[in-house]
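#struct-pred
JK: can someone run the complex with 4'-deoxy-4'-aminopyridoxal-5'-phosphate? inputs below
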Amino acid sequence: MTETIEIDYLPALESRISKVDFSKMVFGKVYSDHMFVADYTKGQWKDFRIEPYDLLSFTPGSAILHYGQSVFEGLKAYRNDVGEILIFRPDKNAKRLNLSAERMCIPTLSEDLFMKGLTELIKKDKEWVPSLSGTSLYIRPYIFAMDEYIGIRPSETYKFIIFTCPVGAYYSKPLKVKIETEFSRSVQGGTGYAKAAGNYAGSLYPAKLAQKEGYDQLIWTDGVTHKYIEEAGTMNIMFVVGDKVLTATTNDTVLSGITRESVLTIARDWGIKVEERQVSVAEIVQALKAGEVKEAFGTGTAATITKIETIGYEGANFDLPVDDERSFSTRVLKELDDIRTGKKPDERGWVYKV
Ligand code: PMP
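RT: done, structure tokens with the ligand placed:
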């Protein structure tokens, strides 16, 4: 059955855009004029609307405030040279939102609703898509429980919201990361593969401890043995060792990053050897000691490609070169940027024009 998606529009009385300095964008502090909202009640998504970005109201007994039944996505829109708006692989985010939703007993929504809500919102706030190099419009779709009930069970009512923020770089410099061997971000059978709110809350404390030691972020290892590398902060992680790109396989403990998949596809198309497999801490530490790790970097929508300049393990720090123009991470970042901003032809059908 195809659903009819009619979206009401309640425009903001006054745009806030004139107050924004687009030359000084930081990540996630500035919000565009409107948001897309849908409500889930009686087993259906309904009341689709675009309204001013504004406060929400909850009762103190709202389930979401207690048990975190909430999932989210992150994607970006860019401007090409002729001013058109391009979104990078939004279909992937729609699918992953539903995958996350299923894990958290949250009702899924049709890809059509996701795409229509997104497209209409971006059209209304098109002036908010920045054009300066290194900037983009970050898009945050999310679904959360709305029941006023403090017993633990899946909520019967939800909200799906999309809002957007013009952004600059998430990380402004290469990172110092520490291989975490005590805390875990996720465990087998857990929720690590989902973009579920609680995963992020649980990762703050270990990251805070590492920050006290002078690191920016953590490299997460498997929750059982801490012998295998999984992700870095909220990014997937890759290493260039010898002539190969190594990265952890995605499974139920690793988020299947869209940037990760895009980077691996580009690498394979370039004829570079890629190994998606269990990557052990021991082999990376040994390769670091032998000077065989040419590059390490994180991949993610917010962070794009973020180089890692130092890896800490059991008190020792290993430094990596980060400024080589010929490096794989520099090349692949440029390639991705060129595709996302329409500077290169979109041969893989990754770019959605609004
Ligand atoms: N891992 C985690 C835990 C994340 O939150 C993200 C950001 N979505 C990623 C990896 C990277 O995923 P993507 O490339 O799809 O943004």
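RT: quick notes.
Helices lie at 63-67, 90-103, 111-124, 197-212, 258-269, 281-289, 328-340.
The CA atoms of residues 132 and 182 lie 41 Å apart.
JK: thanks, will look after standup
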